[in-house]
Every structure is written in C-alpha cells, then in structure tokens.
Specification:
Length: about 140
C-alpha cells in the first residue's frame, strides 16, 4: 500500500489551503498522512503525531493537526491548548463533520481543504496575524509516515 494517496497536484492544493489559512493568523496548521493508524483511536494517534512534529512548541500554543490514516479510513483533527481554550465547544466535531461529508464521496483533498479553511477562520479570529513578530513556525508541507 502506498504511503501517499495524493498526487503532486493534490498535495499542492492542500499546501495552498494551509498557506491561505495561515495568511491572516499566527496559528499553525499541519497535515499528517499515513496508511494505518497505530492506535485504535485516531485522536490518540493524532496527539502522538502532534508531539512528534513538535507542534506543541508554537509560541501561542495555537497549532492544529489534520491527521489521516487513509488505508484505515480514519482521521482526526486536534488543536493545541491555546486554540482549544478559545474555540466553541463543538468546533472540532463540526469541523470533522464537514471533512467527513467530503470524504464520504471520495473527495479527500476537498475535505481537507475545507477543514483547513474552517480552522484558519477560527485561528484568524482568536490569533490574528501580527506582521511585526509573526513567523511561520512550522512547515506547511504534508508529512507522511
């Protein structure tokens, strides 16, 4: 089984969605893709990957990870403490529902892009971009296992 289900064009669309979402915020968004989820619960695996990628090291604790185990058909969206403390209680669940609606019809790139866009809107609201001090703290490229 291939570890990368996305064509180079698909990957570029996802990276572009990340860059667009991060334009107006100090928040950081990453996408991690692997064929199989190493744990029964994709949220637990996403939390482990979050740490593995060093996403907890952002200045304002405002990183968001979109995790996808494509062969197992599992995914999760997790945010660091800074963003979790600010978004509405149902935000992550509603974001997953939006993604799931696209995934159900096989539109993975569209689902990830829409979820990234939605997370970006929340990040922009709570962590607006400050042109003086903001830097891109984490890579925008998709990581693969």
């Amino acid at each position: 089984m291939q570890t990368n289900p996305f064509t180079p064009e698909d990957q570029q669309r996802i990276v572009n969605a990340i860059r667009e979402a991060e334009k107006a915020t100090s928040g950081e968004i990453r996408v991690h893709v692997e064929p199989h989820c190493a744990t029964a619960d994709p949220v637990q695996r996403a939390i482990a990957v979050f740490a593995q990628l060093g996403m907890h090291q952002t200045k304002e604790q405002n990183g968001v990870l979109f995790y996808l185990a494509h062969a197992d058909r599992k995914f999760a969206v997790v945010g660091d403490k800074g963003i979790n403390d600010k978004v509405p209680a149902d935000f992550w669940e509603s974001t997953k529902d939006l993604i799931r609606s696209h995934f159900a019809s096989g539109h993975y790139v569209e689902g990830l892009s829409r979820g990234i866009e939605k997370a970006g809107q929340q990040l922009k609201q709570y962590f607006p971009y400050d042109g003086e001090t903001d830097t891109n703290e984490l890579a925008d490229e998709i990581s693969f296992d």
